[in-house]
């Protein structure tokens, strides 16, 4: 079974071919990603109209290249998976219309994949882990703790009440005059900084529900930065390190609470999993590795190339759904918003 995966929900245009491998993992035959970072950098964030145009310009070539690299033609794929949301609607439409056209012309099943579900299932593509597992899904637009019980069976234990973690990293970077996207820049600056120089708040620490709040932390950082301005290189590094340390403390605390709740909702977890762009953060990965080990769990996070948006995760989610007979037709809608996990019932 070979599945083509197409991703256009944000600022990466991506196409990939994946097939099921031995040992329950996936085998990535090609994984083409074209980032639009350069096109958006001048604006300090993703401009939806620019993103949509850039997807149109490159997507068909990228699909051809993904097939080429995998050494196959469209007639040899068994399904066409596409991220049908959530995301910027212009980009989502371009991916979806392209996938529908290919599906119609080549007479292949269409699988409309939820982009967040694809992040959630990436740990099975890379590590072949079984259900259920606890997932920290943290990207530029989403921060959720989810009990992943099966394909299509997701219980949301907690979420953010304001900013997503990636969004907070991006805003902090912008405030400190660092580049876009902010996460990698803040992480790089934090490496040389003193994480103890600024006593920033740890919002939600100790709360009973595993929710997040990032906006107070971001505001506290802004106040410190304004107090110190103009900022030296060392100030920026210390602010980044202090911010990242606060985020790590909050993440570990929230995951601890989610792990406590997990048992009654889904039983014993097979692993602690991180996914989404923020899962690329080394400090967060290290802290979660320690935490998982202490809880007797393995920690699984995708390799850096699969943390950010990519086509392989869409193709893999397509494989998971196709195996269960979950296919879509040409009426599948493009969705700007598309929650993928049901909120946990309040006990
Ligand atoms: O999953 P993703 O590629 O796109 C979305 O669906 O949002 O995530 C992008 C987000 C951005 O906010 C980016 O700043 C953040 O992930 N990010 C990071 C790191 N690398 C990317 N945040 C913290 N540390 C990083 N190393
Ligand atoms: Zn994403």
Automatic annotation (TrEMBL):
One of its GO terms (cellular component) is cytoplasm. One of its GO terms (biological process) is tRNA threonylcarbamoyladenosine modification. Fe cation binds at residues 115, 119, 309. Substrate binds at residues 137-141, 170, 183, 187, 281. Keywords: Acyltransferase, Cytoplasm, Iron, Metal-binding, Transferase, tRNA processing. Its cofactor is Fe(2+). This is tRNA N6-adenosine threonylcarbamoyltransferase. It comes from Methylobacterium bullatum.
């Amino acid at each position: 079974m070979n599945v083509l995966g197409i991703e256009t929900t944000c600022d990466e245009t991506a196409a990939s071919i994946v097939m099921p491998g031995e040992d329950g993992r996936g085998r990535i035959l090609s994984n083409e990603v074209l980032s639009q970072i350069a096109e958006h950098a001048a604006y300090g964030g993703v401009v939806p109209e620019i993103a949509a145009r850039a997807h149109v310009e490159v997507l068909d070539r990228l699909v051809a290249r993904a097939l080429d690299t995998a050494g196959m033609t469209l007639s040899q794929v068994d399904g066409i998976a596409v991220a049908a949301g959530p995301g910027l609607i212009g980009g989502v439409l371009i991916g979806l219309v392209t996938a529908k056209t290919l599906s119609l012309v080549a007479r292949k099943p269409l699988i409309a994949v939820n982009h967040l579900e694809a992040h959630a299932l990436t740990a099975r593509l890379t590590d072949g882990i079984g259900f259920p597992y606890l997932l920290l899904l943290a990207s530029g637009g989403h921060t959720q703790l989810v009990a992943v019980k099966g394909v299509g069976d997701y219980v949301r234990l907690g979420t953010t009440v304001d900013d997503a973690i990636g969004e907070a990293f991006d805003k902090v970077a912008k405030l400190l005059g660092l580049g876009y996207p902010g996460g990698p820049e803040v992480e790089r600056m934090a490496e040389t900084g003193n994480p103890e120089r600024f006593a920033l708040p740890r919002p939600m620490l100790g709360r009973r529900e595993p929710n997040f709040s990032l906006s107070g932390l971001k505001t506290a950082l802004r106040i410190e930065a304004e107090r110190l301005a103009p900022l030296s290189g060392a100030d920026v590094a210390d602010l980044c390190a202090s911010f990242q340390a606060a985020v790590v403390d909050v993440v570990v605390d929230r995951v601890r609470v989610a792990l406590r709740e997990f048992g009654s909702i889904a039983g014993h977890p097979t692993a602690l999993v991180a996914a989404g762009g923020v899962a690329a953060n080394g400090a967060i990965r290290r802290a979660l590795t320690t935490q998982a080990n202490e809880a007797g769990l393995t920690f699984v996070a995708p390799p850096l190339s699969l943390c950010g948006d990519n086509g392989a995760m869409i193709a893999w989610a397509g494989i998971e759904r196709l195996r269960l007979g979950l296919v879509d037709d040409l009426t599948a809608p493009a969705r700007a918003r598309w929650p993928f996990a049901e909120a946990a019932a309040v006990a």
